[in-house]
Amino acid sequence: MTKPRLYSGMQPSADSLQIGNYIGALLQWRELQSSYDAYFSVVDLHALTVAQDPAELREKTRRTAAQYIAAGIEPSLSTLYVQSHVRAHAELAWILSTITGFGEAGRMTQFKDKSARYGADATSVGLFTYPVLMAADILLYQTDVVPVGDDQKQHVELTRDLAERFNSRFGETFVVPRPVIQKDTARIYDLQNPTSKMSKSAESDAGVLWMLDDPAKSAKKIMRAVTDNEGSVRFDREQKPGVSNLLTIYAALSGRQIGAIEDEYARRGYGDFKKGLAEVVVNEFEPVRARALELLDDPAELDRILAANAARADEVADATLAAVYDRVGL
Ligand code: ADP
Ligand code: NA
């Protein structure tokens, strides 16, 4: 029996991923990769929608791929590749852009937010058509399932609309994918600002735990994490966002229930709790970091893996693109 197909990706927008990416995406990908025919992409074409230094972009792309592998995405089990290595993404995006309404694209809230922030002249057309490229990413592989965060749900809805529209105009061509929204318990917040999500592109990184950081540095950031004056280790997202966030991280990385962790620290202070969490974080990321650095130390091996995986992706993507060209009359 063939496995259902799954597609997901991340932008290479920093030298290191942050642990929100790990808990909210990579851990799930790792779990899903054996029951799905999974495609995991480093979406470097998407990264171009904001200004990039060419050498830095290339480096961040390699580092992101290395971190996928270090986090347990198996390049022999999943197809783990760099988006720009597969030409069909850009080609299908063009075709899909011709069946996307201008108003329809303009209603994407992520575009509205970003363009309002940057201003019209600093907003590229690429940022506007970003969701169309994302639709191409997904539809090229005849994807059944797309695991995404809340913020990408609207883009997956657009992808579904485009797939249905194409199918009804030109004949059945695309699988219509469905989004799987990450669990709320997998959402990690900034340690210094525990009501906004931890992000690679946060203004200050004092509250960001990087996957590739020196473990001692991460431990220090945890010891300095914002809590509250109550002094009890208790989950309450509304009243105690800081402590709740630390509990979420603890539970996600240790595999334990939040209740059990609350019990363990019931009569102990935040200092002990943070020390315990720091230990969990260091234990989790020490080997991940070591493996990523090892991969980055052997560029030829990483190139070989990425080339072999891109070739696999190419095969599937080219077949879809050939069908699309045929249907539209190219
Ligand atoms: P970032 O803000 O770090 O650049 P992205 O928005 O590029 O992250 O998201 C990449 C993936 O990581 C998505 O699947 C997203 O849901 C997940 N992710 C990012 N930040 C977090 C977080 N703080 N908590 C949980 N998941 C996250
Ligand atoms: Na798989």
TrEMBL record:
Residues that coordinate or bind L-tryptophan: 137
Subcellular location: Cytoplasm
A GO CC annotation given for this chain: cytosol
GO biological process: tryptophanyl-tRNA aminoacylation
Alphabetized UniProt keyword annotations: Aminoacyl-tRNA synthetase, ATP-binding, Cytoplasm, Ligase, Nucleotide-binding, Protein biosynthesis
Molecular function via GO: ATP binding; tryptophan-tRNA ligase activity
Residues engaged in binding ATP: 11-13, 20-21, 149-151, 188, 197-201
Catalysed reaction equations from the record: tRNA(Trp) + L-tryptophan + ATP = L-tryptophyl-tRNA(Trp) + AMP + diphosphate + H(+)
TM annotation in the entry: none
UniProt-listed InterPro entries: aa-tRNA-synth_Ic (IPR002305), Rossmann-like_a/b/a_fold (IPR014729), Trp-tRNA-ligase (IPR002306), Trp-tRNA-ligase_bac-type (IPR024109), Trp-tRNA_synthetase (IPR050203)
Keyword set includes Signal: no
Domain of life: Bacteria
EC primary class: ligase
EC number(s) on file: 6.1.1.2
Short sequence motif 'KMSKS' region: positions: 197-201
Keyword Cell cycle: no
Quaternary assembly: Homodimer.
Family under the similarity heading: Belongs to the class-I aminoacyl-tRNA synthetase family.
NCBIfam families assigned to the protein according to its UniProt record, in alphabetical order: trpS
Name of the protein: Tryptophan--tRNA ligase
